[in-house]
Amino acid sequence: MEEKAKYFAGLDIGGTTVKTILVDERGNEAGEMVEVRSNVKDGYEATFHQLENALGQLTSNVGIGRDQVKGIGMDVPAPSCEGVIWGKANLGEDWVGTNIRDRFSERVGAPVYMTNDGNAAALGEYAVRRKHIGALMLVAPGTGLGGGLVLPGGRAHEGQSGLALEVGHVSVPHREDDGELPICSCGLPACLEAWVSLVALRRRVGLELAKPENSQHPLNDGTPVEEKAFRLRDFAQDGDELAMSIFRQQGQILGYGIADLVRVFDPGLVVIGGGLSETEGFRDQYMDWILEGFRERAWPIYLNSPIDKEKSTTRFEWAIGGDASAAMGVAYSAREMFR
Question: Which residue segments constitute the domains of the chain, with CATH numbers given?
Answer without folding.
Answer: 7-129+323-338 (3.30.420.40), 136-319 (3.30.420.40)
